[in-house]
Design brief:
Layout: H1 12-35, H2 39-46, H3 50-58, H4 65-69, H5 72-84
Helix pairs in contact: 1-3, 1-5, 2-3
Amino acid sequence: MSATLPVAVIDFRKVELDRWKVAIGAALRRAVTRRGWSLKEFAGEVNRDTRQCARWMAGSERPQLDVLFSIESLRQPLVIAFAELAGECVDVETIIRLKRQKGGA
């Protein structure tokens, strides 16, 4: 009689989703850093506990995007950080345009 060995089953979708959760958390961390906030300041801005915000940034919990985008000063850094997740198909550039003032130099 032959013994049957247990077969390991891997849900590759879950593995991929877990990777994306970590990548999104890292993007959120970059956005908060670009904004110049500490974890405590960020938590205060989004009116959440620092532990919850730390879980968002670690990728162990999904961030609430509606809460994040409700903070006007976080929108631009957040969009840039998320765009960077798209990879080589997206170039993120910073462009500064100056308008000439009438009568000025």
